[in-house]
Design a protein that fits this description.
Radius of gyration: 35 Å
Mean pLDDT: 77
Number of helices: 5
Structural class: mainly alpha
Number of strands: 0
Distance between the termini: 90 Å
Strand content: under 5%
Shape: elongated
Helix content: over 70%
Order of helices and strands: HHHHH
Largest sheet: none
Length: 131
Amino acid sequence: MIYSQIAMYILVVIVTSAIVSFLSESPVSSKKIEGFVGTDENIEALNDEMSEKVTNMDDSLHIDKYKSDYENTITYGKDYFNAMKVSALFDFGPIVKKQKDKDETEKASIALAKKLSALNEGAHALKNTQL
């Protein structure tokens, strides 16, 4: 019985050694550099490639062909934001109704100010959009 246990132990050690040696002999992968490594030689090529890609993007968007459509979208967007500013005036109702409660009036006023500020920033951003 003891001999069979010793034989089993020796067999386990031999199999484990074989597995470890097999795994240690597997080829080690070389380290790959990810990302962009800029050198004097490849900067010019990268610049040319990026210029070409931007030109291709402009061509694929048909900016010249649909410029009037884009301008109309911007104009309609400006009109929408201005209309939303006017519609925000209806938010004065809760402020007037809650004048007796200082905290509620203050909360309603702050909410209206935030809404008007966001709408104004949106209209301003569209105003500055250029094609």
